[in-house]
Structure formats: C-alpha cells, structure tokens
Amino acid sequence: xxxxxxxxxxxxxxxxxxxxxxxxxxxxxxxxxxxxxxxxxxxxxxxxxxxxxxxxxxxxxxxxxxxxxxxxxxxxxxxxxxxxxxxxxxxxxxxxxxxxxxxxxxxxxxxxxxxxxxxxxxx
Length: 123
Fold this sequence. Notes:
Elements: E1 3-7, E2 10-12, E3 18-25, E4 28-39, E5 46-51, E6 57-59, E7 67-72, E8 77-82, E9 91-103, E10 106-113, E11 117-121
Parallel strand pairs: 2-11
Antiparallel strand pairs: 1-3, 3-8, 4-5, 4-9, 5-6, 7-8, 9-10, 9-11
C-alpha cells in the first residue's frame, strides 16, 4: 500500500517561513516527478512547484523566489521550503508523486496524492 504522508503545516505570521515534508512509503521502486499543489477556499487546486527525479524544478510565478522545492531520493521524500509567506499563500497544501511500485511480478506506475496539510498565514 503506497502512501504519501505530509507534515509541517501550521499558522505563521506574514513574512515568516515554514517547511513542508512529504514522505512516500510502501513498495516503491522509484519516485519520478514529485510536487506540491495547493487549494484555497473557493479556488481550484493549483500547482505550486514540481521537481523531477534528476532535480529539475518548476514553480508557479506567484511563489518564484520565495519557495524552494527539494527532494531526498534515498528517502522518497520531497520538501517545500516556504519563505516570505504572504496571506495569499493560505491554503491546504497537497503532495503529489508519480511513483513506480509493486512487486517484481506486478509493477505499476501511478500518481498519488497526500492527505493535505493546512498552511495559514495571518497576523
């Protein structure tokens, strides 16, 4: 059973920082693209940042220069360092990962979502 478990959300003042973590567990052979999305109340879920297995990154314009995505391939974990947080960053943040998993007799590749972690930026 493959799972993505997120941590690190919370309440922070404007200008503050948070670091989100997302660990993939289960019978995982490899983690391909991993990323973070967010959804604010009344809005659609949007891409925040994504990182490939080779370390190439892509960011939403609204977070460029403030957020940094990274990963630890040995731990199948992706991180999101969020600096200079703004009230507009308030949302539920979801981890997303393209994973190859299973057994040698049944290899499958699927995209998985974490359960979400709340980030609130408020004074």
